[in-house]
Design brief:
Radius of gyration: 18 Å
Largest sheet: 7 strands, mixed
Oligomer: single chain
Structural class: alpha+beta
Helix content: 25-40%
Strand order of the largest sheet: 1-2-3-4-5-7-6
Number of strands: 7
Distance between the termini: 32 Å
Strand content: 15-25%
Shape: globular
Length: 208
């Protein structure tokens, strides 16, 4: 499917009340999708998520952080640790996370969700190619950290990235804790962690 053909999941035909005309405000509201919406993702969003992820990562690294079945796995087990940005019903950016119960990431953390964990592992952040260079990744990440801050079980966020992306994440309070034990092929990563306790109460001041 083309990356530009991303449509809302499970569209339903809407019926206007018998007395409403197409021009009436009531009818118009029923047919108008939210201009911009942030919400947790569900397994029904998995295909749209994978299409954006595949286009974003395959051309750069040759592989995806998560395969389609892994996306469905996390969105089934822990949808509350995901966040999608929808514009007029279309997914334009997303983050998928899971809980982790160790101090540092390991190879197992790529595919596991640990319900008793206190650390949210951010597996992937991706933006639709038509919406890049617009600051959407920054806005989404800030909203996601605020979202995590409202979840009592989550104390910290953790991610791994290539060295060139470290300054981007540092703007949001992440700090490098050293080389990551996880490798993907020949790629090596830096591990970063961030406290999420204050994010739920802070206004966005990262400059994004």
């Amino acid at each position: 499917m083309s990356m530009l053909s991303i449509y809302p999941q499970r569209p339903e035909a809407l019926r206007s009340p018998s007395r409403a005309t197409p021009e009436s405000p009531g009818c118009q509201r029923r047919h108008t999708l939210p201009a911009s919406e942030f919400r947790c993702l569900s397994p029904e969003d998995a295909v749209s998520v994978f299409e954006i992820e595949r286009e974003a990562f395959i051309s750069v690294s040759g592989s995806c952080p998560l395969f389609l079945d892994e996306i469905r796995h996390f969105l089934t087990l822990c949808p509350e640790l995901s966040l999608g940005w929808f514009q007029e019903g279309r997914l334009v950016a997303f983050i998928i996370g899971s809980l982790w119960d160790k101090e540092r990431l390991t190879q197992e953390s790529l595919t596991l969700h640990r319900p008793g964990g206190r650390m949210a592992h951010l597996h992937v952040l991706a933006v639709h190619r038509a919406c890049r260079q617009q600051g959407k990744g920054s806005v989404l990440l800030w909203r996601y950290l605020q979202h995590l801050g409202r979840q009592p079980a989550v104390r910290r966020a953790v991610l791994m990235c290539e060295d060139g992306l470290v300054p981007f994440y540092e703007r949001f309070g992440f700090r490098a804790v050293g080389p990551c034990a996880v490798t993907v092929g020949s790629l090596a990563f830096t591990e970063l962690q961030c406290s999420v306790r204050g994010h739920a109460r802070l206004r966005r001041n990262s400059g994004c």
